[in-house]
Amino acid sequence: MALPKDFLWGGATAANQAEGGILEGGRGLTNTDLMPSGNDRKAIAFGTLNNLERRSDYFYPSEVAIDMYHHYIDDIQLLAQMGLKVYRMSLSWTRIFPNGDDENPNEEGLLFYERIFKELKKHGIKPLVTLAHFDVPVALIKKYGGWRDRRMVDAYVNYATTVFSRYKGLVNHWLTINEINILLHQPFVGGGLTFEESDNVEELKYQAAHHQLVSSALATKIAHEIDEHNLVGCMLAGGSHYPYTCRPKDYLEAIHRDNGEYFFIDVQARGYYPRYALKKFEREGIHIQMNTKDEQILRDNTVDFVSFSYYCSRTVSGYDEDYTRTTGNLFKSIKNPNLASTEWGWQIDPLGLRSSLNMLYNRYQKPLFIVENGLGASDNPNEDGYVEDDYRIDYTRQHIEAFKDAVEIDGVELMGYTTWGILDVTAASTGQMSKRYGFIYVDRDDKGKGSLRRIPKKSYYWYKKVIASNGEVLE
Question: Fewest beta carbons less than 10 Å away: which of 53, 184, 242, 298?
């Protein structure tokens, strides 16, 4: 059994990592615009360093990023020549509503994305559009404190309704909130949250999570009402948890860690709060304020499919003393001696992708979509800018083989696969350009210097053959 003929092969970027033009076209500032490269980036991401104004002593990678704002026509041409079936991208909320909750949308911003969608349609590429990809309007962070406030629901729903209506017939595949579980790990990135010493941090994070979950459900409802052809998915920062040893406490810890990440998707795909979450709230004294209709909203408006990112698996223990050699990933994880690692310490585990697909499909029984997967590596172009990235080809090949086995052997229902990022973009974790993921090299360095010239890598031509053969030719 081969992959379905309509399997969606593609690639992904995000507005805050690719678009640039943050002060052009009437756009307002968003949270990730205020995340500099360098030492303060993590503290800002965690919400422990409040930074809501642009500073002259910071370098902000998203200000220009790879300047897709001015290069999108040429970029889409490169994607079309590659044979992409789908392009995953995000909208910048503040390009459409500069303050997040303006009375009227910014027509210049709406036209910008309309032109992109029409250009994609001209080349037969379906857009898969994320409404909020680490994107919280700064004006709403100042006004409401980000997603901790219930009024964010109305602002998001108005934004979603506007774009569903405007792009009806141009977009049919939507994601509500990118890697929604990142809210628990980097609260400023995921929810625009910052904290004071007196704050109940866990309660505020889960209150913000509730507002996002209700917003996602309402957006799903409205998308279906506006266009019956719309398909709406949720999005998880995925990756299986392995027990460090066969000790029972390690295995139980892996179960608990899985539940902690799947919590959001349990609500979005099943329509209700799982009992393990309710028990956690009870045990830890976390009180979530809910409106009377929230339970029904969640129950009646589950997503059509489940999407997720996969970069690595995670290894966990029930004993704190085991965490002496950890990995470079955001999630607390022990270095697995059975796996190789990237330059940034992320462990390479193609079989873990197959395991994750099985776990997610068995848990939700909904179609799955791998919307991020890729290798962050230092590329060394020759004098012409060409990169022979056999390491990236090998990484991607192994992960494609793994998800093909999940489909063909395990019976997982998989809609598509979009690599991260199809072009080099600034890295979300570090803000670096030197941590490159793309099949297309972009001439820009960590300090913002370079011509921005786009040059296909060896992997570009390899992936083109993979797509043309629907995954049959992988050499």
Answer: 53
Structural domain includes residue 142 = yes
Mean pLDDT, contiguous 10-residue spans, the chain (475 residues): 91 98 97 95 94 94 97 98 98 98 98 98 98 98 98 98 98 98 97 94 98 98 98 96 97 97 97 98 97 97 98 96 80 92 93 98 98 97 96 98 98 98 94 97 97 98 98 95
Query: For 355-387, what is each residue's pLDDT tens digit?
Result: 999 999 999 999 999 999 999 999 999 999 999
pLDDT by residue (tens digit) across 312-364?
999 999 999 999 877 766 788 999 999 999 999 999 999 999 999 999 999 99
| pTM of the full structure | 0.97
CATH code of 416's domain: 3.20.20.80
Q: Which domain holds residue 376?
A: 8-468
**How far apart are the C-alpha atoms of 168 and 309, rounded to whole Å?**
26
Total domains in the fold of the chain:
1
Specify the pLDDT at position 1: 58
Interacting residues of 391 by C-beta distance below 8 A, sequence separation 6+: 375, 377
Catalytic residue, from 228, 261, 372, 413: name it.
372
Domain-embedded: residue 3:
no
> Pairing relation of β-strands 414-420 and 8-12?
parallel
The answer as to whether 473 is a domain residue is no
Cα–Cα dist 202/136, whole Å: 20
In a domain, 241, yes or no: yes
